[in-house]
Each structure stands twice: as structure tokens, then as C-alpha cells.
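Following up on my earlier thread - several people asked me to post the actual chain instead of describing it. Fair enough. Here it is, all 280 residues.
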Amino acid sequence: MPLHRPDTLDAALALMGRGGAQALGGGTDLYPALRDGVPPAELVDLTGVAELVGVTREAEGWRIGGATTWSALLRADLPPLFDGLKAAAREVGSVQIQNAGTVAGNLCNASPAADGVPTLLALDAEVGLASAAGTRRLPLAEFITGPRATLLEAGEILAEIFITNAGGCSAFLKLGARKYLVISIAMVAAVIEAEASRITRARIAVGACAPVAQRLPALESMLYGKNVFQLTEIVSEYPFSELTPIGDVRAPAVYRDDAVRTLVARAITTAMEQEAAHVA
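Reply from S.P.:
Thanks for posting it. Predicted structure:
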């Protein structure tokens, strides 16, 4: 199985366009999968492509290159809006995995329990998919279509993740059977904008409780104008109909259902506290 290490995006896309090639980032998901699956005809290592590495500020928002590692994201100078994403980065496997694994690879692997997906959903992230024929941009909410399934086409790579400029603060909470190296039982991301201690905009996403991480738009609307003291009642009465938690070796479905309610309230409260501290 040939391994190519291009140093330009054009060279990488030319290799991907030949057919049968598999893009390689950190390999933290890809290499274990090769034990049981059919190996690709070729591997194209993207980590040496400068255009795909790093977090940069642009006129309309922030760009995370497709070969940017979780550790690089943690080192980036980012506003409080990204605190939740950085918290998720710290939950991705071990430090060794964070040093090698890429943010884009976490999305392309499309696990229902992928740590990066809920926060990026709550940030209204878009993905830029590049091929030899050009680039197209999709909302992340459309890109992941099911467990291990995305709209990535043959010859394409996830070249960038784009997040539009916005205010507010964010939080991410993950529940697992232990602190480190654990697959989520449930996880919640919240992005909150507030004024005079009342929510002016809420974006909430839940992972590991449905085939694909889900935004909660109806709950987001209910939270408008509310303060932190009203959260418990609102969240406890919300039906969470967007979610379809299952029972498995990590937790029964009823436990996930209860845990999500607690995590959602805590994540919103944490983001609101951070927003208040930032404004002060």
C-alpha cells in the first residue's frame, strides 16, 4: 500500500483524484480500522500540507485547517467562544492522541460519540470539502449523515472547518465511566450569549444520544430571555424528542436520558457564568 506525503494542497488533491486513495491525518481512527477492513489502494498523508495546518482568523470568522491537531487547537489564541471546543479537545483520548489526531478526522470518522462534533455543531460550523474539481462548503449539520457516514465524496478531503464570528461563551461537558480514555455515555455543548443576566441566544447540541449528534432548536428558543434561575424548570420539562438514546455496555437508555438533562443545565449555567465574567 503506497504512502504519499505531498507538501502542497494541489499535489494532495491530484493524488486523491486518481481514485482509490484514502486521506490520512493523524491515523488515530484509520489505522485501527485497517485491522478489520479492506485497506485502501493508496494513503495520502495530509500532515505535511502547510495550507491545511493551523487556526487562523479571517475577515468573517475562524478557519481550522483540515490537518490541525487537537493539541494545536489547544495552543491557539482563541476567544471565549471557543472555550467549549478546547474543553472537548482535552477529552479526546490521551495527550498522545491529541498530539496526532486531527479535528477534521474526528468529523470524518463520524462516530455518534465523537467529542468534537457537539461543540462544533453548537458553533454553527461549516466544513470546506476540496477536490481537484474545486471546493464546496456545507454546514456540519448536513455533512454527517449517520454513524460512520458523511457526504465526503471520492477524491475529496475535509480541507477546513469554518466558524463565523460571533459573541458569547461556550461550555462542553462529557459523562463517561472514568475521567480519561473513555467513550462518552453522553455529552453536551452550549454556546450562550447573554445581556443583563438573560439569555439572548442559545445554541445547544448533544452527542452520544442519537445516531448523529443533535442540536436542540426548540429548547434554544425556549431559553430566550430566561435567567439562570429558570433553567432547572425549563430543562426538566423539556421532552428532548430530538434524541433517541440507546442502552449499551456503557449505560442504559434511561440513564442517558436523565444524564442529558443534568448535563444540559450544567453546560448552560457554566457558559452563562463565563459570559458574565467576561463581560465584567
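The chain has eleven helices and 14 strands. That should answer part of your original question.
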